[in-house]
Design a protein that fits this description.
five-stranded parallel beta sheet; Rossmann fold; aminotransferase; 15 helices; GlmS/AgaS_SIS; alpha/beta; 2 domains; SIS_dom_sf; transferase
Length: 347
């Protein structure tokens, strides 16, 4: 079978990340200047961009000490209610910059007193033009419907945003990301665990995908990709929420995919969850988490050798490759999932 466009774009991510970081790291000062007039952050997004926003939220709260929340765009576009957003930095995220709901919600936020930042791959787009500061990613054209390189470059932009907000992290960690993603692509495709996990997922109706903290957005994004490209039921949950009841759905026909950085405070809990899944007679497949998580699961894809705060920029990559392989194993075209378009307009 010929290489899919999705797979080609997965392979373009190291270059896209290099260009994006080169273009955006000099903007840290611009972000800092705008942020001085704010005290909390409101992320505005839908779809994969919303999953990127989850990463942004955890990064800002855990490392920059600012309250961060996810917006409900319907308050602006459907209920049309005003909210006091004085002191708020509104960060709107859209790969195209053309989704009317996101543009309208950012403009609404500004009218409510917020300062505005756009994260978009759409140079010259309505979103980029309307924001006070536009963080333009350099993913290039993305033709496959499932977002890959536009998603990881959004994460890169949000990492730069975190620096501008004063996050207590080592900026030099970002310099390692493109090479690590390049290494990870090759390592994932050579891993004997890849066909094993694909084969197992191809014979079940769905899976639970779980992570926590900074890796939670990765779990949500991987679940979305499984639903979009493979038409399987995939539930993305924080492992804390999973343990509150939905753990009952994990069984012989519903394996768990668990994601984690190789370090950080949520890793022990993810390892314990893998052990609990297996003790219940279900399969636990893991992405990242180092040797500890790999040893607790049935089959493992290695994650990036990156600190937790920046790990999501690489952690989703084995998941992307897994999804592309799974779609083809199911006889599906991962480039053009049914019922989806590259730009989705919502009311």
């Amino acid at each position: 079978m010929s290489t899919s466009r999705m797979r080609a774009e997965i392979g373009e991510q190291p270059g896209a990340l290099r260009r994006t970081l080169e273009g955006l790291l000099p903007r840290v000062g611009d972000i800092a200047d705008l942020a001085r007039e704010t005290r909390q952050v409101l992320f505005i997004a839908r779809g994969s961009s919303d999953n990127a926003a989850v990463y942004g939220r955890y990064l800002v709260e855990s490392h920059a000490g600012r309250l961060a929340t996810l917006a409900a765009p319907s308050i602006a576009t459907t209920y049309r209610r005003k909210v006091d957003l004085d002191g708020v930095l509104a960060v709107a995220i859209s790969q195209s910059g053309k989704t009317e709901e996101i543009v309208q919600t950012m403009e609404w936020a500004a009218s409510c007193g917020a300062r505005t930042v756009a994260v978009t791959n759409g140079h010259g787009s309505p979103l980029a033009e309307a924001a006070e500061v536009a963080l333009l990613t350099e993913a290039g054209d993305e033709l496959a419907v499932p977002a890959t390189k536009t998603y990881t470059t959004q994460l890169a932009a949000l990492a730069v945003l975190g620096l501008g907000l004063g996050a207590d992290v080592d900026r030099a960690d970002l310099d390692r990301v493109p090479d690590e993603v390049e290494r990870l692509i090759a390592a994932t495709e050579a891993s004997p665990a890849l066909p094993e996990i694909v084969g197992e997922l191809a014979r079940v109706p769905g899976a639970v995908v779980s992570g926590r903290g900074i890796a939670f957005g990765t779990a949500l994004e991987l679940a979305l990709k499984i639903k979009e490209a493979c038409y399987l039921h995939a539930m993305g949950l924080s492992y804390a929420d999973l343990l509150h009841g939905p753990i009952a759905v994990v069984d012989a026909q519903t394996p768990a995919l668990l994601v984690a950085a190789d370090d950080g405070p949520t890793l022990p809990g993810t390892i314990a969850l893998a052990e609990r899944v297996r003790s219940a007679g279900a399969k636990a497949f893991t992405v990242g988490g180092g040797a500890g998580l790999a040893g607790a699961g049935n089959a493992a894809l290695a994650g990036p050798d990156l600190p937790e705060w920046v790990a999501p920029l690489g952690l989703i990559v084995p998941g992307q490759i897994l999804v592309e392989n799974l779609a083809r194993a199911l006889g599906l075209d991962p480039d053009v999932p049914r019922g989806l378009n590259k730009v989705t307009q919502t009311d």
